[in-house]
Amino acid sequence: MEIIKIDKDNIEKEHICCAISSNHDIQVESKKAWLSHEFDNGLVFKKMNIRGKCFIEYIPLENAWVNITGDCLVYINCLWVSGKYQGHGYAKELLENCIEDCLMQKRKGIVIISSRKKSSFVMDYRFLKKFGFCEVDQWNNYVLMFRSLDDHVGMPKFQIAPIKDNDLILYYSHQCPFNVKYVNLLKEYCDHQHIPLKCVHLQTSEEAKKAPTPLTTYSLFYQKQFITREVLNAKKFQKIWETLHE
User: Fold this and answer.
1) What is the pLDDT of residues 178-191, one digit of tens each?
2) Is the whole model's pTM more than 0.90, yes or no?
3) What count of other Cβ atoms lies within 10 Å of the Cβ of residue 27?
4) Does the structural domain 168-244 have CATH classification 3.40.30.10?
């Protein structure tokens, strides 16, 4: 199947493959605005020629919205193949296409965040191991996976500052399209319930690299403890909040 590369010339007419069907949804618009800006920083977004969740998004590590150190590497923001498109080898094809691109750019390796246990919004750990990625660092229940493309490359690692805020605090960016909708809904719910929630909107890669989390699309903390990276609606948050106060 054909792989389509999204760029500034075709982004307005192409479906960007997240779980939203309409190109005119505010969530899609925020994601496309974020992508359009990051194309100038070397971001690559490729999708199979289908209207569904089947794509890969990657960027030079030095420009990535993540606090990882490494020399001449590429960071995969997202590799997502879902639903009926699973089991057809599309993830393998997209990843191999990314590797070929990195070799052409003379990049020394590829990094991606995963988890040993099945977790939302991260690529499967066993799949990455199968394709030559190895675990090189860890943060909470998340691991940094690395595939070397050069015999002399150094190992990448997380470089994350400790969180200083002791309250309920959310770090997020518009890299994830759902945030433009659900962060506001969460804030409205917390305000209504008199729950003090601080929201930190990361708006540049420089801000993201200084965040106390490598999961800069969405990270919720409470009393300096990481809670979740899952984008929450009010109902899901309520369950978490009640569990924290049992």
Assistant:
1) 898 999 999 999 99
2) yes
3) 19
4) yes
